[in-house]
Amino acid sequence: MNKHNIKRKAKVNGVSFSTFLIIIMSMLIVVILATIKIYLSNQIYYNSRRVNYIEREVSALKEEHAMLVNQVQKQKFKNRVSDTIFLIDDGSGSEF
């Protein structure tokens, strides 16, 4: 019976300290990795929002540029036509 008691004492019920440390370290690693993933996901989300905002701004500025080019062309045409009309008026008035 003495040998039987020794075997019982050697076999401890529950978790040993080294197993407990392994479990705690594993949980700590999982928490750290999850935190890093959440941080990176948030950074990607906010950067993509910023990129979308800038793309909208670029699109609006391109449209505004096209409108301004069109207005400049209209002004150039108007000035050329009015200059030729002014020259024609000056030339025809001096002939008579």
Describe this structure in words.
The protein is mainly alpha-helical and 96 residues long. It contains two helices and no strands.
Terminal-residue CA separation? 145 Å
The radius of gyration is: 42 Å
Count helical runs.
Answer: 2
Number of beta strands: 0
Secondary structure blueprint with pairings:
Blueprint: H1 2-10, H2 17-95
Key attributes of the depicted protein:
mainly alpha; 96 residues; 0% strand; 2 helices; rod-shaped
Sum this structure up briefly.
The chain has helices at 2-10, 17-95.
